[in-house]
TrEMBL record:
The chain crosses the membrane at residues 12-29. This is Cell shape-determining protein MreC. InterPro entries: Cell/Rod_1 (IPR042177), Cell/Rod_MreC_2 (IPR042175), MreC (IPR007221), MreC_beta-barrel_core (IPR055342). Residues 112-260 form the Rod shape-determining protein MreC beta-barrel core domain. Keywords: Cell shape, Membrane, Transmembrane, Transmembrane helix. It comes from Spirosoma flavum. Belongs to the MreC family. Pfam families: MreC. It comes from the Bacteria.
Length: 278
């Protein structure tokens, strides 16, 4: 306390000077319309700038929560879209799916905690496991396209076989040409993937979309795989040599959606039974 008193005593002249300056400034502002308006406009400008900076800082700090909220919203939209597509199949026109088939796909949002793209066989780790209803064999998609398939799970985490894996195949469809093929990564550029088994006599154009086909039990049909980048012809082959730009950018993958096909087990058991009878 004594040191504080000593400080005021030593600095009394400076403190008096500052108080007088403040008093003079106050009188100038209150006795002159020009200086009053100038002070008002200047103070408002700087206050607005400080407020804008504060809001920008708060918005940046909330980006994690904003991303999580958007992921949950996309999860709901994916569920509604899958239900709509399943309840209104393209053909035959008289077919109407029952409620079980229309509701067969369920989506669970998960956060990517690890992701590789530099190997021949790449994997992704997500923060959802068996406690969240995840199990091996479930498909995984991003907000923009196909990601992979769940390989192993524990209670709180799952490892996903990425589409950037030498043995991962995706049954794919060229809607424009109405042709079914298989998409497979060749181990090169993580932004590109090959589309195989498309007849050279089918029309294919640069920019055509390629989506998941109806002939798989892992992904809902119509999920974007990529878009045609280049078209060639394999020597002595009857198929196009097609390269796609992958729909999913694995370099900044943050949130994904695990797809549960509620009828997958039933479908695969029946197909296995038919195979055994052959």
């Amino acid at each position: 306390m004594g040191e504080l008193v000593d400080f005021f005593v030593r600095s009394r002249n400076f403190i008096l000077f500052v108080l007088l300056e403040v008093l003079c400034f106050y009188f100038i502002i209150n006795t002159s319309n020009y200086w009053s308006a100038t002070y008002f406009n200047t103070s408002n400008r700087y206050a607005a700038q400080i407020l804008a900076l504060s809001n920008a800082a708060n918005e940046y700090a909330r980006l994690r929560q904003v991303n999580a909220d958007l992921a949950l919203e996309n999860q709901l939209l994916n569920t509604q879209l899958a239900k709509l597509l399943q309840s209104k199949p393209a053909a035959p026109a008289e077919y109407r799916a029952d409620s079980a088939f229309a509701d067969r796909f369920k989506f669970t949002v998960a956060k990517v905690v690890d992701n590789t793209t530099q190997f021949a066989n790449n994997y992704i780790t997500i923060d959802k496991g068996t406690d969240d209803g995840i199990r091996p064999g479930m498909g995984v998609i991003s907000p923009t396209g196909v990601v992979g398939k769940v390989r192993v799970c524990n209670h709180h985490f799952s490892v996903v076989t990425s589409i950037l894996h030498s043995e991962f195949l995706v049954s794919s469809k060229l809607p424009k040409a109405n042709e079914i093929g298989s998409a497979r990564w060749d181990g090169g550029d993580p932004h590109l993937i090959k589309l195989m088994d498309i007849s050279r006599y089918k029309p294919v154009s640069k920019g055509d979309s390629v989506v998941t086909s109806e002939f798989n039990s892992t992904f809902p049909p119509g999920i974007l795989v990529g878009r045609v980048r280049t078209i060639g012809v394999q020597p002595n082959q009857t198929f196009h040599d097609i390269t796609l730009n992958l729909a999913t950018n694995f370099s900044n993958l943050s949130f994904v959606y695990v797809v549960e096909n509620r009828l997958q087990v039933e479908q695969e058991q029946l197909e296995k039974q038919i195979e055994n009878e052959k």
